[in-house]
TrEMBL record:
<dbReference type="InterPro" id="IPR001789">
    <property type="entry name" value="Sig_transdc_resp-reg_receiver"/>
</dbReference>
<protein>
    <recommendedName>
        <fullName>Response regulatory domain-containing protein</fullName>
    </recommendedName>
</protein>
<feature type="domain" description="Response regulatory">
    <location>
        <begin position="1"/>
        <end position="109"/>
    </location>
</feature>
<dbReference type="InterPro" id="IPR011006">
    <property type="entry name" value="CheY-like_superfamily"/>
</dbReference>
């Protein structure tokens, strides 16, 4: 998960870990690139705007060598259809509750038959880098 330093990623990571997901948290595109390549994660949750680049650019770069699926963390003014067209498998609008994120992940993993206009299909592994 690549997001700006705050309590939000830690709370979200906690909720995801409680449900059995491996989660690494980083705060820059460079660290996210390193983490995904090192740990061979299957998907990436990334803020649209990181301190050192865009989440979309990061996702596209990773996809040149790995089959990574992407979830965008975005503000309410983001164009969700554009984000899907640009390559994100899902878009999560901030602020995001742990419950919503976990339910969304279950849908993304195919554990629930319902789907949402802001979700797509992704594989079940997130990543957290040691700090």
């Amino acid at each position: 998960m690549a997001d700006e330093p705050s309590e939000r990623p830690a709370f979200l990571a906690y909720g995801l870990r409680q449900r059995g997901h491996a989660v690494w948290i980083v705060d820059t595109a460079a660290r996210a690139l390193d983490a995904v390549q090192r740990y061979r994660t299957q998907w990436l949750v990334t803020n649209v705007a990181l301190r050192d680049g865009s989440g979309l650019t990061l996702l596209r770069r990773l996809r040149q060598s790995l089959p990574v699926r992407g979830i965008a963390l975005a503000s309410v003014d983001v164009d969700v259809p554009f984000m899907h067209a640009a390559g994100f498998d899902a878009v999560w609008i901030k602020p995001l509750s742990i419950a919503h994120a976990c339910m969304s992940i279950e849908r993304l993993l195919g554990h629930h038959p319902s789907s949402s206009a802001t979700t797509g299909s992704v594989a079940p592994k997130l990543a957290r880098l040691p700090t």
